[in-house]
Amino acid sequence: PLPKLVEMNVLIPVIANDFNTLDQEAIVDSLWALSYTSDAGNETIPLIMETGISQRIIELCNHQNSAIVIPSLRTCGNFVTGSDEQTEVVIQQGILEVIGNLMMNEEQMIRREADGLFLTYAQAALHSTKIIDNGIIEKLVTIAKLDSIEVQREAIWSLSNTTACKHPPIIKALVEKEIIQTISLWLNKNDSKTLVIILEGSETFFSLERPMAFKRINLIVDQCGGLDYIEKLQEYPNQHVYEIAIQILENYFELEEINLNGEESAINSTVKLTFLNQIIETGFWGFGVLGFW
Question: How many angstroms separate the CA atoms of 197 and 222, rounded?
C-alpha cells in the first residue's frame, strides 16, 4: 500500500534527490517508487512535479539502460493523466519527441512502452493537434505494419484511440496518414479486444456529419478491404464484436439481402445515408474548400 499523503510530502523530495546520484541501481529504485506513487492519481502527481523532477525523468527516458527507461516511461505516462496543466508541462519538456524516438528503439519492450505512453497521451489530450505532430502517427503506421505482433497490437490500439477526439482537423490528418487502411489490416485477426477497439474507433470516421468526408471514408474502407472484413465479423463468435459490426453495417452502408426468389435485392439505406447522398448530389462539400473535406 502507498504511504499516507502526509508521509509522501516528506518522502517524494527525498526520492527526487536520489536522481543526483550516479548509482544506476538507486535511480532505478527511485523511478519505480515514483511510478507507483504517481499512479495513485491527482493527489500525488502534483507533489512529484512540484519538485521539478519531471524534466530529469523525461531525460532518463533516453538512457541507454532499459532498466531506467521503462520506469521513466511509466512515470511519464502517469504524468499525462493528470490535469491539463500538468500534461502541458511534460509536453513542453519534450515528452512527445522522446516518444517518437523510442518508437523505433531496437528493444521491443521499449517500443511497446513508447506506444503505450502515446496511447495514454492520446486519451488524455483528445482535442490537441499535438496528437498529429512530431511524425508519431507515421511511425505508428509503420510499426503497425512491420513490427512484431505484440508491438503491432499496441500501435493499432494507439491509432484507433486517436480517433476518439472527433475533432475535424485531427480526423482529416489521420485519414491523410492512411490510418484507416492500417487499422483495417487487423480486422481479420482473431483478437476480440483489438477488434472492439478498432470498430469503436472506426465509428468516429463513419459518424462524421460532413457528407463528402463520409463518402470518401466509406470509399477508402471499401477499397482497402475493410468492408469485406466487417461483413465477415457478422459471423464472429464474440457477441460484442458482432454487435458493433452489425451496427456499423446497418448505420453507414447499404446492405444486400436474398429475397424469397433467390434474387439479391438492396435493403433500404438508412435514413442517414440516404439523406447524405442527397446532399452530396447537390454539391455540398462538408468541410468547405478542402476537397473531399
Answer: 19
φ, ψ of residue 86 to 5 degrees: the values are -65, -40
How many residues does the structure list for the chain? 293
Q: Say how far residue 181 (Cα) sits from the centre of its chain.
A: 15
- Burial of 14-24, coded b for 16+ CB within 10 Å and e otherwise, reads ebbebbeeeee
Query: Do 76 and 83 contact (CB within 8 A), yes or no?
Result: no
**What is the pTM for the complete model shown?**
0.70
Residues 6+ apart with CB under 8 A from 264: 256, 257, 258
Q: Which three cell numbers stand for residue 251?
A: 448505420
Q: What is the DSSP string of 211-232?
A: HHHHHHHHHHHHHTTHHHHHHH
Alpha-carbon span 99 to 158, nearest angstrom = 12
pLDDT digits (tens, 9 = 90+) for 135-193: 888 888 888 888 888 888 888 888 887 777 667 777 788 888 888 888 888 898 889 99
